[in-house]
Design a protein that fits this description.
The complex is a heterodimer.
Chain A: H1 25-31, H2 40-65, H3 80-87, E1 95-99, H4 103-109, H5 113-120, E2 144-148, H6 155-167, E3 174-179, H7 186-197, E4 202-208, E5 211-212, E6 215-216, H8 217-220, H9 226-231, E7 236-241, H10 245-260, E8 266-271, H11 289-296, H12 300-310, H13 316-339
Parallel strand pairs in A: 1-2, 1-3, 3-4, 4-8, 7-8
Antiparallel strand pairs in A: 5-6
Chain B: E1 10-13, H1 14-28, E2 32-36, H2 52-56, E3 61-63, H3 68-80, E4 84-91, H4 92-95, H5 99-106, H6 109-112, E5 122-127, H7 142-145, E6 152-154, H8 159-164, H9 166-171, E7 176-181, E8 188-191, E9 204-207, E10 212-216, H10 221-233, E11 238-242, E12 245-247, H11 251-261, E13 264-271, H12 276-287, E14 297-301, H13 310-316, H14 320-331
Parallel strand pairs in B: 2-3, 2-4, 4-5, 5-7, 6-7, 10-11, 10-13, 13-14
Antiparallel strand pairs in B: 1-8, 6-12, 9-11
The chains are: A alpha/beta, B alpha/beta.
Amino acid sequence: MSVARPSRTRKTPAPSKSGRKPTSSKDEASARPPSAHGTAGHRKDLLQAMLRVRRFEERCVELYSAAKIRGFVHLYIGEEAVAVGVNEYLTPDDAVVSTYREHGHALARGIPAEAVMAEMYGRTTGCSGGRGGSMHLFDAARRFYGGNAIVAGGLPLAAGLALADRMRGQERVTCCFFGDGAFAEGEFHETANLAALGQLPVLFICENNLYAMGTALERHEAQTDLAMRSASYGMIAWAVDGMDVEAVEQATRKAVEGIRAGTGPDLLEMRTYRFRAHSMYDPDRYRHKAEVERWKERDPILLLAERMRDNGELDDKELARTERRIGREVDHAVEAAEQGPQEPVDHLLHHVTGSSAGTVGRP
Amino acid sequence: MSSSDVKQPERTTYREAMREALREALRSDDRVFLMGEDVGRYGGCFGVSLGLLEEFGPERVRDTPLSESAFVGAGIGAALAGMRPIVEIMTVNFSLLALDQILNNAATLRHMSGGQLAVPLVIRMTTGAGRQLAAQHSHSLEGWYAHIPGIRVLAPATLQDARHMLPSALADPDPVLIFEHGSLYNVSGELPSTVQTVDADHAAICRPGTDISLITYGGSLPKALAAADELATGGISAEVIDLRTLRPLDHATVTSSVARTHRAVVIDEAWRTGSLAAEVSARIAEDAFYDLDAPVERVCSAEVPIPYARQLEEAALPQTADIVAAVHGAVD
């Protein structure tokens, strides 16, 4: 499914104070799991990272049904390869802007499962102090600029984060996730143009799961070739098999290398699918079960596991141990959230402005 | 004392005062940059940033495409990353295209992130009518913005505020919206060279008086002052209050004035229904009810999209004569 990278004359990169060079080995070392990409050990890491997101969210379903967590909860199940694969080529200095379907992005970025779960419980110990919930996870230290619940609303922000980096000559990338629905929003088109004009270091990741909530791609886009449309803004853009985590990471590597070299934004259209409904509220009446089942045959976790089995890299005992370890991590996150402190109601007006009570410091 | 020791007041205009404030900000802090439609080569839609591109270069005086949502959002992102952007939107009517970014991001990110993020962004825009620009360039929507927790709203109405409010806005760790009334840009006068800073947090008593409080801001301030002059000839002493900061409102200055004068007229170029004038009136009713000798009067724009024809536009807006009439209604 991976499409060849279209050739295009890149604009001359703007000069920077530091002079641009490819990703430094230090950056890569801090972001990478211990094993090198493309090896058996690395595939194990990828499998484990995807399983972790999957099991975490399966627990969310149970907790939502038990009324432990409320609000809108949008599950990422089926799309794990995108968050996990993209994260492989981001460094801690890079920034991430996400959407309301963000548990996978947050966990892949390294926000502890405990802090994400506590946020869904609305606890003080949650990664947004209980003020965001499932749709608004934040972690300033990890440069995770949140779940934005306005479709395409995070894109301008990503352009600004990247602009600040450009102006200060910092070799950082801002990775911005959004769905296919964003292509119908003006903010997508405004930002694509602005970022390409300014050659801003943004990695746009479109998670094309074929539905904008309940409206199928061909019912919300007159032209459904999203990569081609993005390229028309003067970005390099191409479609990627978003169910194949190794394809995702290879595409991300290519894109990020170009962006770090100063050649402006790239867009990857990750062709993926969500196996669950849009949110826990959604009765999922708008698509056929057979379609969902067909996509499940390309489950990113199964796909990688099969590849590893074919290569003789999958050790069932080890996999069982991994599952148990992830299970314990999720158990622990739930336990900690259950016991986490409730934010006191007299803190209601904290964090409204810099002079509100509860504000730790000025920027 | 030799004559060279006496600093002469500087003759300037509101536009030049604002430009000088921008110049000073760009000079004194390399995190500051100006961004917006036609702020560079064109010199700003209303000429405010004329010459700044030549002085500071295209990295710091950035022309943007006509994409209000994207460049306001980019300002938010840059502020999150530690810069101090000043974003110019041509008019308040155009700012509606960026409302998502202003409300859902700028005003909200600090709270929604549990205090982890801050958006030290300044957004300047023109507001108000009086130049026959009809219904898509003339409205006064600053009251809408003053409704939103998490942002600060400034309305410089004097040369001194145009020149000196900006540092306070840039020092704020939160988004600050600055509304510049279009009719003020050509106002000229003397700027005392002894004044280097202003206190932006409090309303100002521009003209003390004893019989009635005229409470206003922005483009209506000159009209309220003219009304006070006229009333003085008839023996009515009107106190004129410039609110200056529309959020958070300095209500203490208003109530203490009303406690002295016992009467109040609120003048606001926005529509009366759900306006800032309604908010000020309600607060007077809540906090100074027993000080009042007459109901609070409001002078606002007619409830109509601002029309083009001069006589219609004039009839739609609060005028000095309307203020004088409202005062007579409260006093007589």
